[in-house]
Amino acid sequence: MAAPIRVLTAVPICDGHDSAINTINLEFIRHGIEVVYLGYHRYAQDIVRAAIQEDVRAVGISSYNGGHVEFFVEVVKQLRKRGVDDIAVFGGGGGTITHDDQRVMQKRGVDKIFFAGTSLTGMVDWVHERYGPGKRGSRDGAPADMQLARKLTQIEDAYANGKTPRKPAAKKSSGTRVIGFTGPGGAGKTTLIDELVLRLLHRDDSSRIAILSHDPSVVGEGALLGDRATMINSQHDRVFMRSMATRGQAGGLSPATEDCLQLLAQSGFDYVIIETVGTGQEAMPFQSKLVDQTVLVMNPDYGARLQLQKIVMLDLADIIVVNKSDQERAKTAMSEIERRLQGNSREQQLVSTVAKRHRDTGVDRLCDLLTQPRTSGETASEEPKGRARLRRA
Amino acid sequence: MSKLGRVVEAVENYNTFVENEVKRSRTEKKFGQQMVDRWNQIKANIPIGTAPTGLKLPRLALPEIDEAGDITRYLLADGLPGEFPFLNGAYREMYLEPMQNPTIETGTYEKNGDGKKSRLNGSKNGKGNGASAAHNRLAPAAPKPAQAEEPTRLFSGLMLAEDTNARFHFLGAHQRSKRLSTAFDGPTLYGIDSDADGVFGKIGEGGVAVDTVEDMIRLYDGFDLGSPDFSASMTISGPAPIIMAMYIAAAKRRFGPDIVPKLRGTIQADIFKEVQAQNETIFPVEASLRFLTDMMEYTTRNMPRWYPVSISGYHIGEAGSTPVQQAAYTLSNGFAYAEMMAARGLDVNDFGPRLSFFLDCGLDVEYIALTRVSRRIWAIGMRDAFGAGHKAQMFKVHTQTSGRSLVAAEFKNNLTRTAAELMLSYMNGTNSCHSNSADEPFTTPSEEWIRLAAHGQAILLDESGIFKHTMNMLSGSPGMKAVERAVEAAILEEFREIERLGGVMGAVENRYQRSQIQTAAHRYEQQIYSGVRPIIALNKYRNENEEMPEFELARTPRSKQQLQVDRLKKFKAKNARKAEEALNRLAEVVETDENCFPALMEAAEVCSLGQICERLQEVVGRFRPMV
């Protein structure tokens, strides 16, 4: 089975009209297309960076607030400036884009403009025909992030085609730390990671970060890969982010994750962060030896205390984060989880955060835990247990 | 329970109260007779007017009922225009033309406002009674000014401030009152300066570019901002407190500091609907709400003629919500603002009358009565859950016809769509109205089509006799009543769901409103493509040979965009030192719990919009979009 087509969609800067693009995204997904959605009010350079890192076949832009000629052309120009000629740019803007505009835009490299009244089916068919499977070059000699993006595509495609690529030896660049984040849906993993990225970028102005983020999908069907839309701090030149659909695999990751992770771990990043999809109680997604630290992010609202006994990751995670701890139940949750962890024999840390809050001290604390020097692989922390202190964090 | 839960209870209790009173008027003979007497008195005092044809008509139409129960139900459940619960209108006469013959006696609906009558309103806490009774008292023959304001608002916003200013003067040339409504360009709406990287092509597109106090001065040049005939409405929410501060700064420069209490107008400033639907949010929700309440507190105390928030369903409707969702989210947002203001220690009778609303009017059947029902729920909720008096119970609303209902295919049909929507808007007793131009699907409207849209209103209100002779001309049909009941029940059900999610804020964090709106929008599109929802000339009676019309588009020339950038750079260079000081002071105040609006007003004198927004973001963070 051929790999799904991947496209990136976005709404330009100073434009919040996302009604049309939401409908189009849903239609694409229903017809087998994987959509990396960057969101609304997005700069051309963010779109270009994301398109390259995600190695999509095409970028779809939905514009309703004017300035479309300049904006579309700017995206094309920046792609070409970076030597990219195999990512197409298409889009529409209802009645706001005229035929005259379209002629100018196409002359300057825009692939296609859809006008008011185009049917959703027409758009889907066009994407399938125009951006369907086709050979893409290797990008040898291109800048590192472009080569890396293409190699990740090749790994994903190989798995989709039923081939198992040769696994490279499981080793990492020296100094690379791999951190796995997991937890139930709605716990705020994405926001938490984005806040961590903000801190990591600030603490060291040369550090480079890779993020491998996952969203669920069924074999042969599309997916909405929407983490970039909310990860505002991670749209940064020192962050390489890749959104993956699980393509039918249970447990929170994709069949191609391990190989992709190996590649990223060898690419000289300071931090490689993996985020699973929202997982169930029995999930234990990080079997990889490459993962140095694992973080379980929980919502205070997990139900009765008995539920905690069934969550496998509470035994395995190095750090347990209770996010959204501004909620009423947070105090109870912290003490219930603390008691649950006391039964475990290994060193674990418990942190309470409110990731949505600007400059949250809990997130600062988590960042400290994830950046402190280690002597060897497994142990997350040399610090004595300080749960009473942590609880106040 | 948040206040919204209490509002639901209040409406339920009020409906029960009405039915009990109906029963009582049928069983207690004395009470029944009182109601009948009151009714007869009201009818006897309705002035008679004369149409140009010579036909004599009462200035208020009432149902032909004479039984005590029916009378009680009508007076309590619907109310006369201008009386609680305001189903038929916030004011007594709305669009009626002044009486031609002043010798005809103009009475009021009732002669006496004694204590017994106020009890009829069913207020539990009694707080609402004082004002209500006062209003019922024999009115001072209510001499309406012969030159009342037109309910028409003149909406514009294009290119640079001087271009929009010229358009305002063009539009207002034949208007008695100057009620201007201003649209801003994308960079301004997002608090970004025109000289920022990557926004050049957006300068002056879709609205006017405003970066500094100097732009604000140019924007309203030639208008007397303190005149009772002038009001400025500004359609901006994300950076609203900063734009408001800039407006005040501009007014002070032109007219001196004494102008402030005279300023009259509206700023949209509705952060909740931005997060729920329109996506123009700059700061995290809680910080945005703090800046907003700081501003509202200031205007409530210092600018008695200003409406500091326009609680907007329009963008919720345009984003694809159902009409019921639009009304339910707008009303619940309004109650949430009221709750925040009350938490600041402000009196509901001070801030309540300064809350105004903005609704979308489309072609779905709910629009027969959506605004009527909204007015009723607001009045009951404000009176019984917030203890508001008469003026603070009134739901004052600006309506705009639906832009989303307009299509590019055979676009001249949009005139008909807008006309039907205008009719619905006025049937609902809107306080002011904007009619969209037929060329809206293509571009910022051109003068030709704006003129037609504005004339549509004049034809309806001035030329036709539909609204100018008699109040209630179209109110109260069995169909309208059926829609009212169904819509009210559906809105209360939405309230209950929001309440279950922890009130408006809890529901926002759960992205409840967003996902409901998105689902409705998707269904709407599907219905168009499947033909369930006929759109003439688009999916029904389509002309396959139609060519897309070519318009002279309102595009901003590059030279103008460059001019805006140059002017901004000059402003920044001139004020560099003062700006830094003002920004530092602002940042300091924002870190405390103090009201930061005074510091914002100082900063607006010397800083650009983008400078202020950036500094504030450093302190409170950036908005994280919800998808």
UniProtKB/TrEMBL annotation, chain A:
SUPFAM superfamilies xref list: Cobalamin (vitamin B12)-binding domain, P-loop containing nucleoside triphosphate hydrolases
Keyword Cell wall biogenesis/degradation: no
Keyword S-adenosyl-L-methionine: no
Keywords: Chaperone, Cobalamin, Cobalt, GTP-binding, Hydrolase, Isomerase, Metal-binding, Nucleotide-binding
Molecular function as annotated in GO: cobalamin binding; GTP binding; hydrolase activity; isomerase activity; metal ion binding
InterPro entries: Acid_CoA_mut_C, Cobalamin-bd, Cobalamin-bd_sf, GTPase/Isobutyryl-CoA_mutase, P-loop_NTPase
Region (Disordered): 162-181, 369-393
Domain B12-binding: 4-134
PROSITE patterns named in the record: B12_BINDING
Cofactor(s) it depends on: adenosylcob(III)alamin
UniProt xrefs under NCBIfam families: acid_CoA_mut_C
Protein name according to UniProt: B12-binding domain-containing protein
